[in-house]
Amino acid sequence: MGTEQNENAAQIEENGSVFALWTTSFRAERGSVLHGGIYNREMASSLAAGACTLAAVFLFAAVSPATSLRSIAALVCFVPLFLLFRRYVFREESLRIVLDRKRGTASFSLSRPFGGREITYPLSEIGAVRQECRTIHPVNPDGIRVVEKIALQHGTVIPGFGETTEFHTVEIEFKGGERIMVFSSKEPVRAGEIAQKITNFIER
Predict the structure, then answer these.
(1) Residue 29 counted as domain residue
(2) Domain that holds residue 72
(3) Pick from 172, 173, 176: which is nearest to 194 by CA?
């Protein structure tokens, strides 16, 4: 069995008649207005944990007015809350595909914080593995200039903000015409590697 992982958050496993791909990079879409370098999942988890910790401290203050005890309570509450929020509430969505030659199935499982979805197709219905390049252009250039101006006033530069982005995608196309995107990367070489591995397994 072979296992592979890289910076694009993709993992491939091959074990005889089974091929599995797990990834958190399976969309080609415009990012949030709140740039990832400023507002990310760690910050969201910190804010949520901080809010809950403050509430706990205020409740604890009614029981004990000691400042040192409130500080200890805040520290004890914040760390596990941060970990819980990051792992279960603000975790990234992931896609797992499993191609099984023995069962003759192609399964697609979407995992997300609140609910998931799984679809299974006959493996024989896969028609091709497509590789494409999608260009995402920024919208609202006036808004982008305002944000950049405010950032500069605060001595901050937001890398990549407002730039045109190219995504190199890998899609599985079924004979009926339906397509499912299974991987997306800004690196064409990496997308090509994923597409080739899936193609090699299907054609074996």
Answers:
(1) no
(2) 41-89
(3) 172
Query: What pLDDT, in 10s, does the model give residues 90-124?
Result: 667 889 999 999 999 999 999 877 777 899 999 99
* Same domain membership, residue 16 and residue 73: no
Rounded-to-5 percentages of helix, strand, coil across the chain: 40, 30, 30
Give the separation between CA 174 and CA 200, rounded to whole angstroms.
17
Domain count, the chain: 2
Q: Which of 183, 188, 165 is nearest to 30 (CA)?
A: 165
Phi, psi dihedral angles at 122 (to 5 degrees): -65, 135
pLDDT digits (tens, 9 = 90+) for 30-57: 554 444 444 456 666 677 767 777 777 6
- How does pLDDT run across 159-183, given as a tens digit for each residue? 556 667 788 999 999 999 999 999 9
Same domain? For 54 and 113 the reply is no
Residues 6 or more apart whose Cβ sits within 8 Å of residue 161: 35, 144, 147, 148, 151
**Do 102 and 64 share a domain, yes or no?**
no
25 phi/psi in degrees, rounded to 5:
-115, 85
